[in-house]
Design brief:
alpha/beta, about 270 residues, single chain, seven-stranded mixed β-sheet, three-stranded mixed β-sheet
Length: about 270
């Protein structure tokens, strides 16, 4: 990673979210370990704001959390009649019209969508519990490095709800439909060994080596030219939506752009 001498103070520090930028690497940290980094609409707005504040120089975004748990999921206060102060309760949302409810959920989802932007590569460093919304936040990132004590679980179905924070698409993409359905329908824990073997995690390490493993991965990505990584990410992201011949064509077009740029003939 870049030298700490280039690090600045937090670009954002509010509602359980802190953003720091150190040259090409930004770090988003969940900062409420006393509540196991439970999530709320205020935290989601802060996460979305962190994405909007990223400088153009950032190539890697690391998502991490303070304390023993990455995120225990949605703050249980959401399930009380009063909900969060200044926020509509779940009961209020249910009483609203379809358009209003859809718009509210879409706003919540914005905290989870920007991590897969083609101009950055995001890495989640996950330890301890990553439950429900916490699991979906980890799934929002491109890559996941986990501690050997990690416990993923999708508990929404057990609460009579569905996962709605953008986690279903990456989950199915990573582990397949049948495994994703079983994980969601049972709400069971997925531990580190299964996370790696099923493709949920890229690497599992002892908890005290988590930060170092993420630094090593970030450094390896930064060693490659930025434009090549951006083009490759976009190429792979679109692969599932293309057939074989369309993907071949996309490869040719991407390579042509890279060759022209390297030859100084790009636009």
């Amino acid at each position: 990673m870049a030298s700490p001498a280039h690090a600045l103070g937090p670009a954002l520090d509010k509602d359980g979210v802190r953003l720091t930028v150190d040259d090409a690497i930004a770090t988003v940290t969940l900062t409420n370990p006393a509540k196991r980094n439970a999530q709320s609409p205020a935290l989601w707005r802060a996460l979305a704001e962190a994405g909007r504040q990223l400088p153009g120089s950032v190539r890697i975004v690391v998502l991490r959390a303070e304390g023993k748990s990455f995120s225990a999921g949605l703050d249980r206060q959401a399930f009380t009649p009063e909900g969060f102060e200044g926020e509509p309760s779940f009961i209020d949302l249910a009483r609203g019209g379809d358009a209003e409810l859809d718009a509210t959920i879409a706003e919540y989802q914005e905290a989870f969508t920007w991590w897969r932007r083609s101009d950055i590569l995001s890495i989640a460093a996950v330890q301890g519990h990553a439950i429900g919304a916490g699991f979906q936040l980890a799934l929002a990132c491109d890559l996941r490095v986990v501690a050997d004590d990690v416990q993923f679980a999708m508990r929404e179905t057990s609460l009579g709800l569905v996962p709605d924070l953008t986690g279903t698409h990456p989950l199915v993409s990573l582990v397949g439909y049948a495994r994703a359905l079983e994980i969601c329908a049972t709400g069971r824990f997925v531990m580190a060994e299964e996370a790696v073997s099923s493709g949920l995690a890229n690497l599992a390490v002892p908890a005290d080596q988590l930060d170092g493993a993420v630094r090593d991965l970030a450094s390896a990505v930064l060693a490659a030219p930025r434009d090549a990584v951006v083009e490759t990410k976009a190429l792979l992201q679109g692969a599932q939506g293309r057939d074989y011949e369309a993907q071949r064509a996309a490869e040719r077009a991407a390579q042509a752009r890279r060759l022209r740029d390297l030859a100084g003939l790009g636009e």
